[in-house]
Amino acid sequence: MKKRNITILIIDDEPNVCSSLQGVLEDEGYTAYTAQSGEKGLEQLARQEVNIVLLDILMPGGIDGIETLRRIKSDYPDVGVIMITGHGSYEYALEAGKLGALDFIEKPLSIDKVLTRIEQALKNMRLEAENVQFKREVEEKYKLIGESSAMQEIQKTIARVAPTNGRVLITGESGTGQGVSRTCYSQSEFEK
């Protein structure tokens, strides 16, 4: 049984790690592909949609895992990346986290740990996507519209007052849109 059409790409220079992980993930219902270098992994990402990448940090040859991560997050920001390594260090984990990796797992890999981290990463990615969608819907619902000089003045006033604890009362005839004043606006919403 397929797990919600989730595709996982394993990028590791060790063929036995790739084949073992691929077998386990497919047994769990995921679609899994492998690549044995950063370059090959990026080629795979260009050809097919991937949800999660399991990425080894240290790989010989062309580009290492950190550079591969940098390129993945630049070109495919919605792809979740979990770093795996046999050479765990605080510096690598810190750098990977700064670049957007969701997690960091040390070898030898525990299958249970890998599966748990994948499920957690997918959950976090779903929550993040829902949060972005919710913010978008709220912004659209309460967006001030209009480009008149009066409307621009209202927006400037709200922008000045937003960082304070003060309140703004917008008055006007029925149907002119003053009802949106019940919504709290932050300074950042008016700087867009």
Q: What does this protein structure show overall?
A:
- This protein has 192 residues and is of the alpha/beta class.
- It folds into 2 domains: 7-137, Rossmann fold (3-Layer(aba) Sandwich); 144-190, no CATH class.
- It has 6 helices and 5 strands.
- The protein has helices spanning 15-27, 38-47, 65-75, 90-99, 111-141, 149-161, and strands spanning 7-11, 31-35, 52-56, 80-85, 103-106.
- A 5-stranded parallel beta sheet has the order 2-1-3-4-5, with helices on both faces.
- Helix 1 links the parallel strand 1 (7-11) and strand 2.
- Helix 2 runs parallel beside helix 3 and helix 3 packs parallel to helix 4.
- The longest helix is centred in the middle third of the chain and has 31 residues, at 111-141.
- The radius of gyration is 23 Å and the shape is elongated.
- The two termini are 45 Å apart.
- The model is unreliable at 181-192 (pLDDT under 50).
Strand content: 5-15%
Structural class: alpha/beta
Helix content percent band:
40-55%
Number of distinct beta strands? 5
> What about the largest sheet?
5 strands, parallel
The domain tally reads 2
What's the CATH architecture name of the largest domain?
A: 3-Layer(aba) Sandwich
What is the topology, as strand order, of the major beta sheet?
2-1-3-4-5
CA-based gyration radius: 23 Å
> Treating each run of at least 4 consecutive H or I residues as one helix, how many helices?
6
Principal-axes shape call: elongated
Distance from first to last alpha carbon: 45 Å
What are the secondary-structure elements, in order, as H or E? EHEHEHEHEHH
CATH superfamily of the largest domain: Response regulator
Low-confidence stretches: 181-192
CATH topology of the largest domain: Rossmann fold
